[in-house]
Amino acid sequence: MRATSEQGPDDSSGAEPRLQPGWLSTEPYAQLIGGKEATDGTPQPITDPSTGQQPARFLAATEQEVEAAIAAARTSFDSGVWRRMPGPRKAEVLEAAAAAIRADAPKLAALEALDTGKGVSGALVNDVYEAANAFSYAAAVARTAHGDARRATFPPELLPGGGPQILTVRQPEAAGVVAELLPWNGPLMTGSQRIASALAAGCSIVAKPPADAVITLVELGRILTSAGLPAGVLNVVLGAGSKVGEQLITDPRIDLISLTGGTDTGRHVMAAAARNLTPVHLELGGKSPVVVFADSDLEQAVGWAMMAAFVNMGEVCVAGSRLLIEGSVYDEVIHGVAEAAAGLPIGDALDPSTFIGPLINARHADRVRGYVERAVGSGDAKLIGSPSVPDGLGPAFVAPTVLGGVRRGCELEQEEVFGPVLAAMSFSSEAEAIELANGTSYGLNGTVFTRDLERAFRFADSLDCGEVNVNCHFAPDMNGGRGEPRKASGFSRTGVDAYTRIKAVNVQVHSG
């Protein structure tokens, strides 16, 4: 299928193409199984949310292709072709992948923007950077992986002199064959972080990108194959979660299911995994509070609050979607954030000047608009700021919206909107701020702005979440730096540890 002139590769209008020729495949994106591309699946359209057009296709995997992918991963793991490879050699492959991602950065950023709607400039400086960094980090872990050892003896009352001396070696080993189910908001970055960590641990993988955003995961599979990853260690299958995903999570040959997605999907995956007692690794989202005290640097707090809420159109699991402001500075902060948001450029995701691109699709945009309409219509919130979407843009675009005076306990305050919508509330005391911050079922991360060092540590200690930011929101190192979330945000170990299990080996070193 050829791309249309608007998409770039066949542009004959004289205008600068949105994509460089050759970057978007003219053949359907296929499965990667056992080191080769498989093309038996049914063609499905890939939709550009900026234009609503369908410039490319992918092949939805057949049941037989998913079966083959699981078998390839199982064979590669059981043979030890990757998991028993020396750490320095693993690191060479992972470093080669990182280098290839950096070399292909403009292409990968453009394809990510086309597929997901995120601004291409942000995709380049954040998503592609973090994807490459994930493999560099994984290479370092692969080189330096180690366990621990301690000596032990039996109680002297049990055996004279303590009996034989025992050396206990505790060594992390690969969890096994991983079904990696990825989200549509950042498939390249999140996929790289998950896959790189699993590879550093020595796992074999069957990865499934979301049906709404498949392109960059297929490209990542090609990069890793070219980098020297043995056949069958990474397999990529495409298609709907209800078919392809279901086949993966119910197969007894899968040793670990890793999901990054929504809470409803998480519940379903846990229930399905229970049939085979398959361990699960979940990151399910958040409703993260950004807490601003009156003694903070308000200019800095306003800038971070705006970024926390509207980066990637709010389609971020760690988005600061709740803004809690001390009453004496409430008006200054909320109007400052609304003013900053009103100046964000809205437009085509492939325009380098765009900050707010389209959401993943028009259906999700309608869902996000519904939250705003219900909150304002019921009196649960007051509209503070929401600039107009420029004429000519399609139904997947939603303006960055700031809502104030949000009623405690309402839908908007409690549920993850996953769009460019900020819910603001005021508080009068530190105790009330903590109560509000911890007042949802989510617990992924939280942020506090204050100049009081003791308050910062006290507040961090009181926040019930896996990661706390003080006077910032996004951390620069996203590999292994997060804590363990709770409740509706999921639960898991983090980084490479999430893909390992500990084996203890007890050796008698002295007979006593």
What does this structure look like?
The chain is 36% helix and 20% strand. It has 14 helices and 21 strands. The strands form six sheets. Strands 14-15-16-13-12-18-19 form a seven-stranded mixed sheet, sandwiched between helices. Strands 9-8-7-10-11 form a five-stranded parallel sheet, sandwiched between helices. Strands 5-6-21 form a three-stranded antiparallel sheet, with no helix packed on it. Helix 4 packs parallel to helix 5 (187-201). Residues 1-13 have low confidence and may be disordered.
The helix tally amounts to: 14
Total count of strands: 21
Largest sheet: 7 strands, mixed
- Low-confidence parts: 1-13
Structural class computed from helices and strand pairing? alpha/beta
Q: Measure the end-to-end span.
A: 75 Å
Which range does the strand content fall in?
15-25%
Strand numbers in spatial order across the main sheet: 14-15-16-13-12-18-19
Please give the radius of gyration in angstroms. 24 Å
Defining key terms:
512 residues, alpha/beta, 7-stranded mixed β-sheet, 5-stranded parallel β-sheet, 14 helices, 21 strands, 20% strand, globular, disordered N terminus
